[in-house]
């Protein structure tokens, strides 16, 4: 029996177990850390957006992939 970490909630997934909440907090912390590190040396908003894109988008895609695999939804 597989324990569910997330449940489908529209187009996204909502955490229901401590593992899911922990994963969301780790991802949010990583994204915030990347934002502040990149923004510190940026000269404009577009510099910041171009700088965080290669880090934030894969992190959110990975979170979505893990959520889809641990949601218990049939493939």
Q: How many angstroms separate the termini?
A: 16 Å
Give the overall average pLDDT.
92
Number of strands: 2
Q: Estimate the helix proportion, in percent.
A: 55-70%
Number of domains: 1
Shape: elongated
| CA radius of gyration | 15 Å
Uncertain segments are: none
How are the strands of the largest sheet arranged?
Answer: 1-2
How would a crystallographer describe the biggest sheet?
2 strands, antiparallel
Strand percent estimate: 5-15%
What is the succession of H and E elements? EEHH
Task: Tell me the number of helical segments per DSSP (H or I, 4 or more residues long).
Answer: 2
The structural class is: mainly alpha
Can you lay out the helices and strands and say which pair or pack?
Elements: E1 6-9, E2 12-15, H1 18-40, H2 45-69
Antiparallel strand pairs: 1-2
Helix pairs in contact: 1-2
Brief write-up:
The protein has 75 residues and is mostly helical.
């Amino acid at each position: 029996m597989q324990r569910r970490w997330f449940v489908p909630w529209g187009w996204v997934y909502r955490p229901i177990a401590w593992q899911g909440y922990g994963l969301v907090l780790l991802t949010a912390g990583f994204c915030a850390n990347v934002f502040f590190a990149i923004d510190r040396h940026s000269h404009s908003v577009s510099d910041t957006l171009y700088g965080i894109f290669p880090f934030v988008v894969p992190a959110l895609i990975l979170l979505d992939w893990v959520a889809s695999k641990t949601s218990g939804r049939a493939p």
